[in-house]
Amino acid sequence: MSENQNLLAEQRRALILDEVRRRGGVRVNELTRKLNVSDMTIRRDLDALARQGVIEKVHGGAVPVVEASTHEPGFEAKSALEPSAKEDIARAAAALAVPGSAIALSGGTTTFALARHLLDVPDLTVVTNSVRVADVFHDAQRPAGGRGARPGAATVVLTGGVRTPSDSLVGPVADRAIDSLHFDVLFLGVHGISAEAGLSTPNLAEAETNRRFVRAARRIVVVADHTKWGTVGLSSFAALEEVDTLVTDAGLAPELRAEIEEHLPGLLVAGDAPADD
Fold it and tell me: Which GO terms describe its molecular function (predicted)?
């Protein structure tokens, strides 16, 4: 029962956030009528969204938090946002990795979660510019007792570069390394995603490194929770139409799912209940 209540709360808060962003603000009494819940429930939802830093509470309602397009939170700050959604996304995205293939993972907290699920996929060659992602595979290759790497462990290539607040390595060194490689699949984390701006980041150097990743991959899989939709960073590095599959979570509102499906061929919503036969 508690799991169902949590799921409903997450979906309700996603709808509230979408309403706030689309209209530029909402009132509590409007939300109680629209969602058919109590005034106290809406206020708790607004408190939760305010703690996540995505809305600002005002008298009688809420307005969106408008961050500077150059603002880039650190890895630890981003890790605290939507952890259950990121786990759902990571689990679903890992099923898209084929044993023995060459894959790339960009930086980010969702790709970090994905890396842990990829440990069970044998014989991968993994290229990443994320120090955190590389550490996941590196630690897994050092089993207790000091013996050699386990059979089928991933081969990991970490690019060089300048370290960003989210522990990614970007810049000319990373760009040159990626230019010489070819990937079966790129798993790409993003700061923001929208129909107009496509995929974006607040970091200019990271945008260029991500462009190189996109060009080097046969298939592009974006892993992004529902709060990333509608966020726009300083620099766009790919159009939505360049993405093959977007893996997101069940907090994404149905109307947004329909809009996304107009722009890309694959939308995988992790955590959705299976449809009845």
Answer: DNA binding; DNA-binding transcription factor activity
- pTM > 0.70: yes
> Of 258, 219, 230, which Cα lies nearest the Cα of 104?
219
pLDDT tens per residue, range 149-208: 666 778 899 999 888 877 899 999 999 999 999 999 999 999 999 888 999 998 899 999
List, as one string, the DSSP characters of 125-160. EEEESBHHHHHHHHHHTS-TTS--PPTTPPEEEE--
* Same domain as 160, residue 32: no
Same domain, 214 and 116: yes
Burial category of 139 from C-beta neighbours within 10 Å (exposed 0-12, middle 13-18, buried 19 and up): exposed
Expressed as residue numbers, the domain containing 43 is 7-62
- Domain with residue 246: its CATH number is 3.40.50.1360
Phi, psi for residue 57 in degrees, rounded to 5: -75, 135
pLDDT score, position 54: 77
